Amino acid sequence: MWQAKRFSWTATLVGAALLVGSASVVISQEKKTGPPTRLDRAKNEVIERPTKVVVHQTSAPKTPRPLDMTKTLRIEPPVRTIVTKASAPAAGDKFVNPKVQPGKVRWHPTLTAACAAASKSKKPILLFQMMGKLDDQFC
Amino acid sequence: MLFSREDVAAFVNRYFEPVWESVRPVPIVRIDFGNGNVLTRTLHGNIATYVCSADGQVLDLLAGIYTPAVYLQRLQQFRLLANYVDQQGTAKRAERLRDYHKGQLAALTKDGPPMALLNVADRGKARIERGVKAMLVLGDQARAVATRDAALAKAVGEPKLDSLDDLATWKALAKDTETNESVRRKQVHELLASVGPAVPQALTRRIYKDILHADLEDPYLGLGSSLFASYPFKDDRPH
What we know:
The complex is a heterodimer. By secondary structure, chain A is mainly α. Chain A has 6 helices and 1 strand. Chain A starts with a helix and ends in an 8-residue tail after the last strand. Chain B is α+β, with helices and mostly antiparallel strands. In chain B, helix 2 crosses helix 5 (about 140-155) and helix 3 (about 95-110) packs across helix 6. Chain B starts with 5 loop residues before the first helix and ends in a 10-residue tail after the last helix. Chain B contains 8 helices and 7 strands; from the N terminus they run αβββββααβαβαααα. Chain B has a two-stranded antiparallel sheet with strand order 2-3. Chain B has helices at about 5-15, 70-85, 95-110, 125-130, 140-155, 165-195, 200-210, 225-230; strands spanning about 15-25, 30, 40, 45-50, 60-65, 115-120, 135. In chain B, a hairpin with a 5-residue loop joins strand 2 and strand 3 (about 40). At the A-B interface, helix 5, helix 6 and strand 1 of A face helix 1, strand 1, strand 3, strand 4 and helix 2 of B. Strand 1 of chain A pairs parallel with strand 1 (about 15-25) of chain B.
């Protein structure tokens, strides 16, 4: 009698366990038809950012990216700025134009001196006008 | 360099009282290649040669650079011009000078030969005392003077051209001379015929701006549009 009771309890428990197991299998099968399981976060969000996001944020030409400030303002300032500001004071420029002989002509030092000489010699004056200086190497 | 040549220097020393002056510093371009090599050269330098009377009045001028031979030809004519305009006294100079420039302008406008000045002083006297008596000649006579001067100029010779660079530079100089003798000479005669007696300082800015295309009042000498046209950051303004 005792043994028969024990057997029926065991059978009930096993039956219940099988019922729960099969129910969970059915539920898990049903879940697979719903939304997919989330992918590995580290790979998707940290290592490989979604293509859409990458394309949208880094290459979509919505607004032009500002120019490289370091290059345009520090390394290569606009030419106009260089010419007007940086090159104006010659004191900062290390270039020194070497002095040379201004040819073999015997030049008067000033136009006034040439006029005075011309009054005496009755020769005309030859005035040579130029940018730079005739006694500079680069003129 | 023009004034380093013996023939040019000797001619200038013998027949003129020479003086040079700077109208402004010349722009200098330096390219530092970063390995110790630095290229230095001038940019857009330009010159003008005036002949003036003893009281400083401009008689004529050459705008731009010339080959030595043509430069000497022109200086020879200028020397005669200085004599020609004062032959009837300094009071008549302005009138004779204006007529001279008007005549030259008319000849060049018609693409004819410009008038020429001939030294008709007694040859013996001219040789001994460097005497000069200039006469203005036209047409065939002017052409004959030009032909004779060209032959003399040919005798001056060209510098030794040792490399392709020298040859290229010489060709560019010859081309400049041609432009100076045609286009710029005409502009010079037009200006001098219209302004009357003037000292060099009164003409300098106009000559550089209108004839040599280098505006002395512009810090970029009129080159700004070319300098900044292709610069990609021209619109940037520094903070």
